[in-house]
Every structure is written in structure tokens, then in C-alpha cells.
Amino acid sequence: MDNDDVLPPVAWKQIADQLRDDPEAIPRSERVSLLTGQTEAWGAPSDECVAVLELLARDPKWEVRREVAEILSQLPEALFSPLASTLTQDQNHYVRKAAERALDRRRRGEKNALARNKKSGDLAAEYDSMERLYGSLPTRKARRIVEKHFDMLVGGTVHNMRGLLTPIKHNAEELSALAKSGSIDKRKLGQHASSIVTRLADLEQFLDDMRAYAQPLPTQRRRERLIDLVREASDAARAYFQATGHDPAAIELRFSVPESLSVEVARHQVLSVFTNLLRNAFEAFRSIRNEVGPFWISVSATLDIDRVHILIEDNGVGFGEDDLRQIREFIPGHKTMKHDGTGFGLPTARRYIEGHGGSLDIDSQIQAGTKVRIVLPIESTGEPPE
Predict the structure, then answer these.
(1) Domains of the chain
(2) N or C: which end of the chain has fewer CB within 10 A?
């Protein structure tokens, strides 16, 4: 099957039939894409979708089985339990580890849900406690700061969603007008339909980024090799850049991370941080891709007693002072005029790193590139995040 003939998500039965006849009838990359590109299907999968998942959990390629393990925690209990039992006993180490992480995420999710149910009204209780400790004036000031931040978040969110919905509305109106006219212009139909699909994908990404920002910060951590996280994140960022129609081969990746260096982290959140930052670094070359290089992205790490200092650097287009000043506010949903994205990437990255007891800072210059500095403790602090 060619790349141009990838089956749509609704064709689960056809996909299942192909895989039953030949587990490798669909190229490996497309089998992986079925798992990574269908996040909305896992919460309540159809019978045909379940059949595909069960087949892919027994796939000949461990990379595919690992992707099934990565989404385990999103599945309903009736499907989660048998697949988790199978994949935690897989012969491949990476598949087993991914399944074990999914089990951990599942347990944490259940604990967090219980905690949220117990903590209704906690915000008011925290204000009351603060007023008793520090007095009414600091408490009122803190409340105003929180309300201002909330207003900015809501305002930015509404602005961004309106920007996504306006062209969808326009294209829908054009399609309606074409239908009423009775004329069939396939070119215009295709243009408007394609525009709607693209904007809906952008809206879905925006909602996913909002949800990621709002995720509770986990208290349970595992020891992970830093270089493994960096390599996996760089592979994901490179694949995303290539999927947007750009050539990552023109950009050199430089790693200077000790093989033995490890940190105690919530893996999926720190991996998300590195992936997002490396995606940003690749994006920094879009507008100058036709210029003469060399183009490079560098990730380095050094140990300082009980903390690791990580530097992600590129020699891409960079930011101006005004943009950088706005970016350094780390307000979710706010984005600069000159750069794409949802405005949640860097705020989410900073929130995740600070939840680990670390820090994230950014510096940049136009035509000189961008540097993101991350500091993480080697050992988990053992303290629940704020």
C-alpha cells in the first residue's frame, strides 16, 4: 500500500481484514501511524478498532507492539487488562518497559481522580488558610494575580479558537452556497473541504495542548537515561518536521550527553518537553531553509553535584526582543505574531520541568538562534508538586 493510499480512520474493518490475511500487508510506518494518529478512538473503540489493536499487539515488529503499549493507559478497562497482561510479558525489553509505564500511568490516573474528588473546594480553603497565615491584604493581592492570569488565559484561548473557527465557518458557508446553486465544481469543493479538515486538525491540536497543560503533575518518578529520552524526542521531532513537508536531513543533530547520566523523572512528561523543544528548534529553520548552512541543533548536558544542566540550542532564525519578552512570560495560549503554534508548548514545558523541582529559561537573537536551558535534579525531591 502506497503512502498516498493510507486508509482513513473509519476503515477499521478493512484494516483488520488485511492484517488477518498478512500481518505485514500494511507497511510498518503506517501501522505505527494507525496507533499514534487516532487518539480520540481509544476511549471508546469500536469492535473493528478493538480487533485491529489486538492484531497489532501481536505484530511481528516490536516497534509496533511498543506503540500499542504506549496507548494502553487510554483504553477502557475491558480492553486494557488483557492487552496489558500480554504486553508486560512480551519478549522485547522495550515493549515490556512501555507496558509497565502504561500500568504506572493508569494507577496514577486512578489515584489522581480520587484525589480530585476529595479536593473539591480546596481553592477556597487555600485562600482561607493563606489569609489566616499572612493576612487579608496579601491574600487579596494573590487572588487578583490569579484572576488576572485566568483572564489572560481565557482571553488568549477565545482569540485562538475564534481564529480557527472563522475560516471553518467561511468554508462551510461556501460549501452551502455551492450546494444551493446546484453547480458541481469539484475543484472548489475540494479546496473548501481540505481547508475545513486542516483547520479542524489545528483545533484538535489546540485542545490537546490545553489538556496537556492542565494534566496533574505526577509525584511518582522512574530513573531514566537522559540520552535515551533525548534520542527518542529527536526522532519524534524529526518525523514531525518531515511530515510537514520539510527535509530534516539538512539540519545536523549534535548530542553531547553522557551515556551514564540518568535522572528520576515522570518519563512521558519530560519526553514531551524535549520533543516540543526540539520541534521548535526544527521549526526555526523553515523560513531560512533555502539559505546556505550549515544548520544545526545541539543538545548537551553537564552534571553539577546533584543537578543536571541541559542546553538545547540551534542556529535558526531566532526571536526578536519583543517576541522574546512575551515568550518569557510563559502565559499559556499566548503566541507571538511571527510564529506558529498554539501558545501552550513552552508554558507546558516550563510547568512540567518546575513540577520536577527544576527550571527552564530561554534566550534568543534574530539570525543567531535560540538557547533553552533546563536544570533538573538528579534525584526526585519526593515532594508533591504545587
Answers:
(1) 3-115 (1.25.10), 123-214 (1.10.287), 222-377 (3.30.565.10)
(2) C
